[in-house]
Design a protein that fits this description.
The protein is an alpha/beta fold and about 300 residues long. It is built from nine helices and nine strands. The chain has helices at about 15-30, 40-50, 65-80, 105-130, 155-170, 220-230, 230-245, 255-265, 275-285; strands at about 10, 30-35, 55-60, 85-90, 95, 135-140, 180-185, 195-200, 250. The longest helix has 26 residues, at about 105-130. Bound molecules: nicotinamide-adenine-dinucleotide. Nicotinamide-adenine-dinucleotide (NAD) binds near residues 16 and 190.
Length: about 300
């Protein structure tokens, strides 16, 4: 797919982070955008950022964990926009927790959003994408769909599954008009960590601090995660460039590329290489937004 002009794109998780900037950059490229998020306020904030682009925008309060709501969405989109050319299954959450003490509803929640949401959206929209002369299904996994760390068992279970599901679809759809992509971001400075539930470690110790400071609050860690990652507008630009270039796997950031290389070189001991990758890149990474984009609503 060479360009997004006059196409219609559905973006889940469009209220924040990469989803918000996918929506902005698609609108800037002349694409009509269907914004979906579970958060009404941030969804409205993204719609506001798109107001000055000359494209049609619709907003849908959608929980991607709600299968019935997903089943009803394509008909609404067709009624409002007449067609669907691109679907970005971007919405995602995490919970920081040891597996042994993790309440089952926590497990089910992340499974519903990160995996069932992607699968149900793909099932609901593929028949409509297949009607188009060219179309794209873009599923977001993570670099944590390539490697694993402690206290993220549910996130890894979903992100490895999204990768397996999507890579199988890439092969199934290779002779069709639908291009399928799996996105593997590294560290992107978004709200995902601030929004995450954190369960205490079984021995009562705080979970390992992102800042290397045991006394940092969750709020401080969430702010540091946002501050030190690549700006989500840059991540969105890389994702859209990967779609234009028809890359099956889209790695976002040098950290993602190097971590993927590390797990190929040493599949069982890559964690020893992670500090060498993360620390220098935290200093080098481009944390500034792309130029000439609308400001985020306060
Ligand atoms: N930020 C990173 O470093 C990083 C790295 C790898 C992968 N990812 C993945 O990228 C994707 C985007 O995350 P982000 O970092 O921009 O996070 P974010 O928290 O900034 O944005 C996620 C959005 O998804 C929405 N959302 C959450 N639950 C939802 C639900 N049930 N239904 C609909 N929307 C829902 C949130 O309201 C939010 O607007 C996620 O799939 C995430 O797992 C992020």
């Amino acid at each position: 797919m060479q360009n997004f002009m006059s196409k219609v794109a559905v973006v889940t998780g469009a209220g924040s982070g990469m989803g918000r900037y996918l929506a902005v950059l698609l609108a800037k490229a002349g694409c009509d955008v269907v914004l979906c998020d579970v958060n009404e306020d941030t969804l409205a904030g993204t719609a506001k950022m798109l107001a000055n682009y000359n494209v049609a925008v619709s907003s849908h309060l959608l929980d991607v964990g709600d299968e019935e709501a997903i089943k009803a969405l394509p008909e609404k989109v067709i009624a409002q926009h007449g067609k669907v050319d691109l679907v970005f299954n971007n919405a995602g959450i995490t919970i920081d927790s040891d597996f042994a003490t993790m309440p089952e509803p926590d497990w089910d929640k992340v499974m519903d959003v990160n995996l069932h949401g992607v699968v149900n959206m793909s099932r609901a929209f593929l028949p409509y994408l297949q009607e188009r002369p060219e179309a794209a299904l873009v599923n977001t996994s993570s670099i944590f769909g390539m490697i694993a760390v402690p206290r993220q068992s549910i996130y890894h279970a979903t992100k490895f599954a999204v990768r397996g599901f999507t890579e199988s679809l890439i092969k199934e759809m290779k002779d069709s008009s639908v291009q399928v992509h799996c996105v593997h971001p590294g560290h992107i400075g978004t709200n995902i960590f601030a929004a995450a539930k954190v369960n205490p470690a079984p021995d009562g110790d705080a979970s390992p601090s992102l800042l290397g400071r045991g006394d940092a609050t969750h709020e401080e860690q969430g702010a540091a995660f946002r501050e030190h990652g690549m700006h989500p507008s840059r991540a969105a630009e890389i994702i859209l460039s990967g779609v234009r270039k028809r890359r099956g796997r889209i790695f976002v950031g040098l950290d993602a590329k190097l971590i993927d290389l590390a797990q190929r070189i040493t599949p069982m001991h890559y964690e020893k290489l992670l500090p060498l990758i993360f620390l220098p890149l935290t200093l080098l990474r481009n944390k500034k937004a792309l130029n000439e984009l609308p400001a985020e609503p306060s």
